[in-house]
Amino acid sequence: MEKKNKEITSRDVDFAKWYTDVVKKADLVDYSSVKGSMIIRPYGYAIWENMQKILDKEFKKTGHENIQMPMFIPESLLNVEKEHVKGFAPEVAWVTQGGSELLDERFCVRPTSEVLFCEHYKKIIKSYRDLPKLYNQWCTIVRWEKTTRPFLRTREILWQEGHTMHATKEEAKAETLQMFKIYENFQRDYLAMPVIVGKKTDKEKFAGAEETYTIEAMMYDGVALQNGTSHYFGQGFAKAFGIEFLDKDNKLKTPYQTSWGVTTRMIGGLIMTHSDDNGLVLPPNIAPYKLCLIPIGKGEKVEEMVNLLTSKLDKEEITYQVDNSDKTPGFKFAEAEVKGYPIRIEIGARDLENNKITLVRRDTLEKIEVEANIDVIITKIKELFIVIQKDMYNRALKRRNSMLYEAKNYEEFKDIAQNKNGFIKINWCGNVECEDKIKEDTTLKSRCIIENEKVDGPCCVCGKEAKEKIYFGKQY
Amino acid sequence: MEKKNKEITSRDVDFAKWYTDVVKKADLVDYSSVKGSMIIRPYGYAIWENMQKILDKEFKKTGHENIQMPMFIPESLLNVEKEHVKGFAPEVAWVTQGGSELLDERFCVRPTSEVLFCEHYKKIIKSYRDLPKLYNQWCTIVRWEKTTRPFLRTREILWQEGHTMHATKEEAKAETLQMFKIYENFQRDYLAMPVIVGKKTDKEKFAGAEETYTIEAMMYDGVALQNGTSHYFGQGFAKAFGIEFLDKDNKLKTPYQTSWGVTTRMIGGLIMTHSDDNGLVLPPNIAPYKLCLIPIGKGEKVEEMVNLLTSKLDKEEITYQVDNSDKTPGFKFAEAEVKGYPIRIEIGARDLENNKITLVRRDTLEKIEVEANIDVIITKIKELFIVIQKDMYNRALKRRNSMLYEAKNYEEFKDIAQNKNGFIKINWCGNVECEDKIKEDTTLKSRCIIENEKVDGPCCVCGKEAKEKIYFGKQY
Asked: A122: nearest CA in chain B?
């Protein structure tokens, strides 16, 4: 594809620079004097609003209710579950003063809300009749990161966090998998992102969880993005908080817990999966504006066609932008490309004389001439949305698959790790020592354990008996 | 009306206790170890989600875009506009430590975001082509209050804050009034709340604003609730931040600014306007569930009617709850009353034998027998929603009007202030000394200047020439 935008670094030259160029030029984010945080600009926030709308509907359909917890956590409350506090204390922001008074006990700004939900659950769960509790929260959390990148790693993160309590282990495990599946489907069907899913190793799981299921997306550069997790907690937090319920058999029991979340990081994943040297490329199913109408010249016929088209689009509830500025057509095209509108419609006086208009696919930049008839145009557009969505997924899948490797022994592993970008599959004995060794030798971390795939050799690292197949990769 | 709920204090006995009983018993909020903050429980949050949905649509219809700013403000940035910092610094929460490191400069958690928007506007506004900027943000803010009450005064507040920039004074003033009007219409048409609107005095206006328009609602006990404000800033912030744009005439000019906001406090206002000794009373236009279906007994006919009705309600997109618990009918009725569902539908086997069902209005507890025919029921329900909404507004209006007073001289004013609850209208000279004197003598504060009403006597306090009519009242 021809690279036309001189203000965006080529992604094959400097991927990190390309990424920040795209998020800036497409008006997704801006920086401020609040270091480590970002301003999510209207166009970026509109993508997040779409994500929220779709996911929130899925959560409610599966019986979840939204709730709002405090944003602060007193230090003593954070300390209740030992593994959890170990994981989060080093990266929280501490409020030590309110107005002019020093606080007796400092508060952290929530890095996640398990302890707040547990304290609440302790109060409201008494009987089996109170279960399950299926709560979700949309909010901002804070983790005091040293190095930050827009959407991928920021001090403030917009996210949702589901927290549920169940009478039985089976039900909690089913919930963990159900929500995980919702994330996977969403990323495939709306974000057009092929993902690898599976369980995290003990070393990489969430602080306090028994099992963490992860969604691992691979970016254009072969680096992994953890793009959503679902945790099964067992009874760990519930026991630490003394949560008990009277079951049908009249016995006091401890409930089973889950939590699950996705963040604005998904926007980063979306960009690094699909976008190109001309800017953003958005799948139709998540784009805030599916179309950009570009009138060329000012004739009456052009105006009439724009009016006819926009009123039809309104009726069909297809979102669009119209670029009525006095910029040159070339400039408008480039801008539409930077913004990643899935299709742009060029409406020119000369074309209309020949009874045609031109559609341009953002993903391929292919030009398609169509009869200048509203019904023909709308039919073609709808057809293209489906094709673009599918093509974007398939291109991403093909690229991802071309960067999946398998190593039979450790020499091979190190060779791939050094020379290739992507995920490397190995047989693994299940011991953290081998995981640590890989990280030390290559900086690669385990991505996820592969379910339903049998081992076919000894552990790639130590040569002892393997228990599982597992992926390793570099990560964002 | 008969008081049946023994767990709720009577509002005429102890209004403050009644209020906290209602918010707790109706499952709107809960407390936690985070003092001064509240947990907004699913039923309370669903009311907020409805408010957001309706207002967000209005904001977007009038051209506003959502954005997300950082939640932290560096101390030096808060200090840029002098009036503003004076107003807010005494009540902010300070973050002084990130992870294990003390920060070089402390951050406050945003009490409001004017300075963040101004810093951003300084970067993105260069030309008249960049104006207007019409941004809104849904977020949580923090004000370190000493004494707190759920929804009315809490350390954390969920709200929306609009921040706009305009090329001309006229446009900015029109925006201030437009958004103010949207709030007023929303509170009248959805919350069934009659409100008094007008300008704040200089003493009571927002820190940094030239003009503050306020929406003053009167609660059941005659006390005022400031339930939304819209500010015209003039060029104050813009000059402090050095924001300039090149106008069409090729001259550098300073833009004009507004901000406007409403908060979860509206939920408190809703409760204190309409609810009664049996619990919450919600207007149909804002209720998360418009109906509660209560099957009485377990017969096949009862089940069949519930199924027919719920599938019809789903189709009509009318929200409802079904109480299928094994509690007694009386207990279920009381619970439906506490929750304030606008109508409950009692579906009993004996009634069905006589081909009827019973609807009960929550606002009046009136029982209405209806033929047990789906179409008849649905028609009647829809009719009742309109009637209930209107009746609730009219009752609130009548009550509010019965607590509006007018004082011709200061003795009369003090007499009313001491013996009555409500708002007192006076002629006022416009001097802050008279405003201060009233506060000192009676604790009453000015509510708002009354527009379009001529003075008809001297200043009620000092006896000098009056300039304006103004309301005073106690406030939450």
From this structure: B32
pLDDT tens, residue by residue, A298-340: 789 999 999 999 999 999 999 999 999 989 999 999 999 999 9
Q: Report the interhelical angle of A374-401 vs A265-274 (nearest 10°).
A: 90
**Digit-coded pLDDT (tens) for B367-408:** 999 999 999 999 999 999 999 999 999 999 999 999 999 999
Distance set, CA B337 to CA A274, B344, B345, B471 (Å): 53, 8, 12, 35
Query: Tokens in use for B379?
Result: 């028609």
Contacts 24+ apart (CB under 8 A), B363-372: B363/B274, B363/B281, B363/B388, B363/B391, B363/B392, B363/B395, B364/B1, B364/B391, B365/B1, B365/B2, B365/B278, B365/B337, B372/B305
Search chain B and give the residue with CA nearest A98: B93
Q: What SS3 state is found at B396?
A: helix
The span from the CA of A231 to the CA of B86, in Å, is 46
A158 in contact with B at a CB cutoff of 8 Å? yes
Amino acid at A442: T
Taking CA atoms, B276 is separated from A451, B1, B51, B321, B338, in Å, by 57, 9, 22, 21, 9
User: Minimal Cα distance from A73: which residue of B?
Assistant: B34
The answer to whether A287 and A339 have CB atoms below 8 angstroms apart is no
The whole-angstrom distance between B257's CA and the closest CA on chain A is 19
Query: How far does Cα A359 stand from its chain's mean position?
Result: 30
Give the distance from residue B103's alpha carbon to the nearest chain A alpha carbon, in angstroms: 10
> Between B68, B93, B140, which is nearest A95 by CB?
B93
Provide the whole-model pTM: 0.96
**pLDDT tens digits along B55-69:** 999 999 999 999 999
Helix axes A410-419, A432-442, angle to 10 degrees: 40
Across the interface, which of B39, B99, B106 has its CB nearest the CB of A144? B99
List alpha helices for B221-368, DSSP H: 236-241, 265-274, 300-316, 329-339, 349-353
Question: Do B126 and B133 form a contact (C-beta atoms < 8 A)?
Answer: no
Chain A residues with CB-CB distance to B335 below 8 A: none
Q: Map out the domains of chain A with their CATH numbers.
A: 15-71+115-274 (3.30.930.10), 291-384 (3.40.50.800), 404-473 (3.30.110.30)
Q: Which residues of chain A have pLDDT under 70?
A: 1-3
Nearest residue to B285 via CA among B221, B189, B199: B189
- Which of B24, B27, B54, B19 is closest to B43 using CA atoms? B27
**What is the helix (H) or strand (E) element at residue B19, kind and residue range?**
helix B15-25
Report helix, strand and coil shares of chain A as percent, to nearest 5: 35, 30, 35
Candidate from A33, A70, A90 with C-beta closest to B32: A70
Beta carbons within 10 angstroms of residue A223's beta carbon? 18
Q: What is the ipTM of this complex?
A: 0.95
In the structure encoding, which two tokens stand for residue B148, read together?
Answer: 């707190």
CA–CA separation, B43 vs A65, rounded Å? 9
Residues B400 and B224 sit within 8 Å (Cβ to Cβ) = no
CB-neighbour burial class of residue A173 (10 A; exposed 0-12, middle 13-18, buried 19+): middle
